[in-house]
Amino acid sequence: MDSAHVESDLVNILFTEEQIQAKIAEMARKIEADYDGEELLVVGVLKGAVMVMADMARALNRHVEMDWMAVSSYGSGTKSSGVVRILKDLDTDIQGRHVLIVDEIIDTGLTLSWLVSNLASRGPKSVAIATLLRKPDAVAMPVDVKYVGWDIPNEFVVGYGLDHNEKYRNMRDIGTLAPHVYS
Ligand code: PRP
User: Fold this and answer.
1) Which of 15, 66, 120, 152 is 20 to 30 A from residue 8's alpha carbon, by CA?
2) Nearest Cα to Cα of residue 104 among 52, 58, 166
3) Where is the Phosphoribosyltransferase domain (predicted)?
4) Candidates 43, 83, 107, 164: which one to mutate for ligand 1, based on the most atoms within 8 Å of Cβ?
5) What is the extent of the structural domain holding 99?
């Protein structure tokens, strides 16, 4: 969906489809260099990471394996507890493998910090994170993010996998949602 179709729901367009693709290509070049000569498993975190996984995997000019996890915080109001449960686990045994978690946004950082320690306990060769967007709270979290597309303000952003009540995920651009939509 083009963002023009929901223009009145948005305060602004934060990143256009073209800017997103250019950023992903830039990140892909760094990933290629860092994992040169190594096998790599990229792990997407459902559902938001579907778009960035699809584009990142295709931007990488090398073989990668892809796997998926689905996780959920316990209860909607307890996200800050950092307690996460696995709804869908990896199909892959990651022991002795390089793992790169790919996500579209790190907000509080709790999901990804939990995920990194969970995957690290399975004996991989390495676990790292690539995220397209990162919010300020996550900058303060003790989670080491190896690849960041953009640091963004603490605003409600939608599009390119990011939703509000499951809508806007299929919007090509990333935009700031207008308060009248969610308040
Ligand atoms: C988003 C995103 C991250 C998580 C980050 O997923 O994909 O996994 O939130 O938030 P945190 O840094 O505060 O932990 P969400 O829970 O919205 O699920 P979704 O991907 O299915 O939309």
Assistant:
1) 152
2) 52
3) 18-163
4) 107
5) 17-153
